[in-house]
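Sequence, please.
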């Protein structure tokens, strides 16, 4: 279900007169934000529990599809070239090729798809936020579990699910509840802020 909206994204609300410098600065801010969220973690093996996925959704809701995807791409590139932006301050191509690599690529697809949903009017109500969060998490898990399967090699589906899905379900459910409670008010708060 789509909703009538004057603005496609929260970024559009807060920055009505954008230019390439503002865009670049805000994308840089989003990289720093996501790097910080990645360090809020419970160190499990092979994939730690982090607040990174919540940060990914914040970026999708804030930027929408294209700028959101650019933000994730900038984040990934920053990690590849040596900045410790990944969970545990990891960096380099090894982090991308490791057990969390599939999840990181899943972030990129998730942000683009959820961002498109936001631009079409989703994410303004609690039920719509829930839909965005569920679809986004399915995308992240699809890429993450596939990458984990390639990394771990010839192991059964059950072991893949136990390593890359089951430990995160409760945490992701709590993140979804937090998003459902928070994101609709971010829209209202942003619109009130610029109306003064």
């Amino acid at each position: 279900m789509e909703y009538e909206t004057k603005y496609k994204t929260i970024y559009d609300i807060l920055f009505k007169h954008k230019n390439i410098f503002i865009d670049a600065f805000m994308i840089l801010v989003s990289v720093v934000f996501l790097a910080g969220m990645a360090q809020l973690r419970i160190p499990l093996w092979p994939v730690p529990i982090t607040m990174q996925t919540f940060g990914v959704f914040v970026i999708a809701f804030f930027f929408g599809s294209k700028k959101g995807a650019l933000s994730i791409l900038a984040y990934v590139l920053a990690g590849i070239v040596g900045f410790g932006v990944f969970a545990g301050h990891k960096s380099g191509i090894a982090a991308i090729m490791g057990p969390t690599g599939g999840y990181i690529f899943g972030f990129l697809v998730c942000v683009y798809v959820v961002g498109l949903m936001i631009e079409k009017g989703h994410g303004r109500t609690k039920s719509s936020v829930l839909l965005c969060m569920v679809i986004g998490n399915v995308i992240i898990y699809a890429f993450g579990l596939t990458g984990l399967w390639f990394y771990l090699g010839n192991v059964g589906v059950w072991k893949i699910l136990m390593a890359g899905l089951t430990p995160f379900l409760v945490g992701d459910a709590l993140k979804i509840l937090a998003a459902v409670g928070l994101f609709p008010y971010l829209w209202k708060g942003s619109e009130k802020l610029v109306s003064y």
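The mean pLDDT is 88.
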